[in-house]
Amino acid sequence: MNINIPFGKPNISEKEIEGMIKVMESGILVHGQKTKEFEDEFAKRIGTNNAISVSSCTAGLHLSLFVNNIGPGDRVAVPAMTHVSTAHVIELQGAIPVFIDVKKDTGNMDTDILHKESKNGSLKAIMPVHYLGLACEMDTIMNIADESNALVIEDCALSLDGKYGNKKTGSIGDCGCFSFYPVKHMTTIEGGMVTTNNDELAKIIRKSRAFGYNKEMGDRTRPGIYDVDKLGFNYRMNEVEAVVGLNQINKLDDSLIKRKRNYEIIKSYIIKNNLLFIFPDKSLKSISSYYCMNIIYMDVNKNIRNELQDYLKSLNIGTSIHYPSAVPFFTYYRNKYNFKSNEFPVAQMIGERTLSIPLAPHVSEKEAHKIGKALIEFINAL
Ligand SMILES: Cc1ncc(COP(=O)(O)O)c(C=O)c1O
Questions:
Q1: Left if phi > 0, otherwise alpha if psi is -120 to 50, otherwise beta: which for 151?
Q2: Closest ligand 1 atom to the C-alpha of 322?
Q3: Which strands form 163-164's sheet, in the order they lie side by side?
Q4: Is residue 95 lining ligand 1, measured as CB closer than 6 Å?
Q5: Tens digits of per-residue pLDDT, 122-169?
Q6: Residue 245 above 50 pLDDT?
Q7: Are strands 125-126 and 96-100 parallel, antiparallel or unpaired?
Q8: Nearest to 210 by CA among 237, 187, 240
Q9: CB of 85 closer than 6 A to ligand 1?
Q10: Is 325 in the pocket of ligand 1 (CB under 6 A)?
Q11: Is residue 335 classed exposed, middle or buried when 0-12, 13-18 and 19+ CB atoms within 10 A define those classes?
């Protein structure tokens, strides 16, 4: 019998559905208590003073640049291998993305290149992306940021519960942005969160996510009366999303155990072939959030990624790719900045060769063995 294993599958149970119905029946769909409760729970989990719910990780990243007045002429460092979201928000602000190639052993920003770029011209912000959930070298990044007086905005879209030393990702830089898109560690359908220990920053992000109103709903003495003293967006999370999030948080501990178990099982097969590179789950002070397991076939003369993806699909094993191109080589960026084709060799190699294997809790122990076996059989038959 075929086992159908998608790359990602939201883990929704009765509690989320009951919660959603209750919220719908209450008539309070935005500006309610659930959003506040969810923010408090999330801040506790990450270990920050504040968490501000938003409509997506992209909204959170955008707000983080916007409220810090990062705009035209400002240079912002971003890894060349990331979701386009991290770079797009820089463009949306009219700032200049300074793409940094990544390290081939982790896929994270190469801090030697970052350091050089910080000497080439001042950086207003650094946006480390914890690739596939493994924290970047945050000590070095924070030192470079201190030297250049740059803000650090962590992109934690794939690193919920990932750790650097004894800190969670999202609690190290000036702020961290999380994604609750359906196949992430937890979902709110769409949604995101900004975490920060800076109370002033939290206050201004809160204000800018809702039009720049000077008073939140509960603080208004007369309904409908407010002033607007700054620009803002409508990047709020609604109450239905928040109640889903509140129930999802409770599943994270179990999810992490299963993700790690699946990683170990699949790895036990893959390490039998030394031409297969697996992105690590630990490095120096970093411990992964086990978002997915990425592999690269190292024979430079043969790129078997697409064949392998098709083979796994034929066995009903879903995969994904993180990410399909170095961001500077997506058409928009290539046309605008005219990068040379050899400028970001590691990011480009990863984009061409990496394959993401599912680890999430919908993958049972038996299915993890099936995936491991399928991978090694395919590779050994080459
Ligand atoms: C690294 C990274 N940053 C940002 C995003 C965007 O997240 P969202 O869809 O919540 O805006 C993603 C989406 O997958 C991502 O992988």
A1: beta
A2: 16
A3: 167-168, 163-164, 286-287, 282-283
A4: no
A5: 999 999 999 999 999 999 999 999 999 999 999 999 999 999 999 999
A6: yes
A7: unpaired
A8: 237
A9: yes
A10: no
A11: exposed
**How, if at all, do strands 75-79 and 286-287 pair?**
unpaired
Whats the size of the chain, residue-wise?
382
Please state which of the four CATH numbers 3.10.20.30, 3.90.1150.10, 1.10.630.10, 3.40.50.150 is assigned to the domain occupying 252-380.
3.90.1150.10
CB neighbourhood size of 233 (10 A): 16
Per-residue pLDDT tens digits for 180-215? 999 999 999 999 999 999 999 999 999 999 999 998
Task: Please report, as a single letter, which amino acid is at residue 187.
Answer: T
Separation CA 336–CA 350 (nearest Å): 22
* Eight-class DSSP state of 285: T
Q: Please give the distance, rounded to the nearest whole angstrom, from the Cα atom of residue 83 to the centre of ligand 1.
A: 6
* Cα of 170 from ligand 1 centre, angstroms: 14
Q: How many CA atoms lie within 13 A of 154 on its CB side?
A: 34
Decide: residue 240, CB within 10 A, 0-12 exposed, 13-18 middle, 19+ buried: buried
- Domain boundaries in the chain? 14-249, 252-380
Q: From the CB of 78, is ligand 1 less than 6 Å away?
A: no
Task: Note the Cα 232 to chain centre separation in Å.
Answer: 23
As a CATH number, domain 14-249 is 3.40.640.10
> Would you say residue 1 has pLDDT above 70?
no
Output the DSSP codes for 85-153.
HHHHHHHHTT-EEEEE-B-TTT-SB-HHHHHHHHHHS--SEE--B-GGGPPP-HHHHHHHHHHHT-EEE
Mean pLDDT confidence for 336-344: 96
Say if ligand 1 is within 6 A of residue 82 CB: yes
- Which of 85, 154, 323 should be mutated for ligand 1, with most atoms under 8 A from CB? 85
Sign of the Cα pseudo-torsion (56, 61, 64, 69, in order) = negative
Question: For residue 98, what are the β-bridge partners?
Answer: 77
The answer, yes or no, to whether any atom of ligand 1 lies below 6 A from the CB of 88, is: no
Can you tell me the mean pLDDT for 292-301? Answer: 96
Dist. CA 157 → ligand 1 center (Å): 5
d(C-alpha 218, C-alpha 31), whole Å: 8
pLDDT of residue 3 exceeding 80: no
